[in-house]
Design goal:
The protein is an alpha/beta fold and 467 residues long. It has 15 helices and 22 strands. The strands form 6 sheets. The chain has an 8-stranded parallel beta barrel. Strands 15-16-17-22-19-20 form a 6-stranded antiparallel beta sheet, covered by helices on one side.
Length: 467
């Protein structure tokens, strides 16, 4: 589902910006968390996520079709498989012939088009045997109009002018284009208990590792504060919020949130509506808005972007590789949408069957290099677990974006030409960033000196690592 970006703080930020694979850890491993912040699994520190649109991922369009490709995903290097909703889809007010996966009819069942609960358990078990974690797309804000809960517990649902209603936005107004789903009411204690118990079921009985929570900010934050200890009582849970407007999520339940603003800014830079220095403005805003050490998810494609806004080529054109490099090295958690490793070049239908046309997986070597860097170099890990991002000044910061990160002796130096013209520039390297590096996408050793005169072609990049 789409995240809504109308809060005044983000509008102000937008105006400001416009103006200017190691051996898998044990499945139960838990990292220490800061006081007041939820615990996180140890493996989250250098994880790469992979979003799987089950309906379109294989010709079969089911869980078995995903399971068959697990060895390939392991070879790609991904750590976390994010499955779009696996539940049965409502019939009433359904969109298209197959409906939206986000119109959930029964939270405790599996869509029969995908298989059954045993198939789901087998997929999770097979992924775990390969060291891949599995997180489930969770839709807590609304259900289908013919959901099991709606017939058994109508008191769980919101009323608007006395009637059941489509989801309500932050201002309590109906979101009219979400006509296929019905809003849940978190003022009801019974709903809260049922939702928590159902999430625990998937953690305990199916052994998933966490949740990507759809429209997390439309559910009251005090619910998440209540839910998180109950989920962790089953296992330390990875929680990703599809929301960016609530810093308190990092204190209540969530380990990471969506970098929607990063996505918007990078698309603007690719289109020439903003320039490289806009990333500085964005970083300052994020660092001020969120608690220290926050994690965000960065991506150039996901199901919403691909189906509704455009393919990576349509949205980023020749700049796509540069922004994927940035997603893997900036300061967050990188994510791939299924098909990116094969240069997915079509918008996948959202309400119909429209399988990915797999080819030779042409972009796999590119992503394998970036994923290997994430696994071995602590400097590019996210938030509190990675190195602080230090901007490297140049004499052309509107076109060139350069930065340095260091953590526990690991170093990474990244230089990108975020413009459509070949650019000559001088790089003024701080003392702590000088020294010998290996070029991730070349075979040479590069000596970073105090001042370096360079030229990069349009959208060209250089990633230097000392590991």
């Amino acid at each position: 589902m789409f995240s809504k970006l109308h809060n005044s703080c983000w509008l102000i930020a937008l105006l400001l910006i416009a103006a200017c694979q190691p051996t898998p850890q044990p499945m139960t491993a838990t990292a220490k968390s800061d006081p007041g912040q939820p615990a996180q699994p140890e493996w989250a520190k250098n994880a790469v996520l992979y979003q799987c649109n089950i309906r379109q991922f294989s010709p079969e369009g089911n869980l078995s079709g995903v399971q068959q490709q697990l060895p390939r995903l392991k070879a790609l290097g991904i750590d976390v498989l994010w499955l779009m909703p696996v539940h049965p889809i409502g019939q009433e007010r359904r969109k298209g012939s197959l409906g939206s996966p986000y119109s959930v009819r029964d939270y405790r069942a599996v869509n029969p088009d995908y298989g059954n609960l045993d198939d789901m358990k087998l997929l999770v078990r097979s992924a775990h045997e390969l060291g891949i974690r599995v997180i489930l797309d969770w839709v807590p804000n609304h259900t289908s109009w013919d959901a099991v809960w709606k017939s058994e517990h109508p008191e769980y649902y919101s009323r608007y002018n006395g009637d059941f209603t489509v989801p309500l936005n932050e201002r309590g107004e109906p979101i009219t284009d979400w006509s296929d789903v019905c809003d849940l009411d978190y003022n009801n204690p019974g709903l809260r208990r049922a939702m928590i118990e159902t999430m625990q079921f998937w953690l305990r009985d199916v052994d998933i590792d966490g949740f990507r929570v759809d429209m997390a900010g439309l559910v009251p934050n005090d619910f998440w504060q209540e839910a998180r200890p109950a989920l962790d009582s089953v296992k330390t849970t990875f929680m990703l919020a599809e929301w960016q407007d609530e810093p308190a999520h990092f204190r209540s339940a969530f380990n990471a949130n969506y970098g929607w603003k990063w996505k918007d800014v990078t698309k603007d830079v690719a289109a020439g509506r903003q320039n490289a220095s806009s990333l500085d403005t964005l970083l300052r805003f994020l660092d001020d808005f969120y608690p220290e050490g926050y994690y965000q998810l960065y991506f150039t494609q996901n199901h919403d972007e691909n189906s509704h806004n455009g393919t990576e080529s349509e949205l980023y054109g020749p700049s796509a590789d540069a922004f994927n490099v940035l997603a893997f090295t900036w300061q967050g958690i990188p994510m791939l949408y299924n098909g990116q490793e094969d240069k997915l070049n079509k918008r996948l239908a959202f309400f119909e069957k429209d399988p990915i046309e797999w080819g030779e997986y042409a972009r796999t070597p590119f992503y394998q290099k970036l994923i290997a860097l994430r696994h071995t170099n602590q400097a590019v890990w996210p938030g509190k677990d990675g190195g602080k991002l230090v901007k490297i000044p140049t004499n052309n910061d509107d076109a060139i974006y350069a930065f340095f990160r260091e953590k526990n002796g690991d170093k990474a130096l990244v230089v990108l030409n975020l413009s459509k013209v070949s650019t000559a520039f001088s790089l003024r390297v701080p003392e702590e960033a000088r020294g010998a590096y290996t070029d991730l996408f070349g075979s040479s050793t590069v000596q970073a000196t105090a001042e370096m005169d360079m030229r990069l072609d349009p959208w060209e990049y250089m990633v230097l690592t000392n590991k």
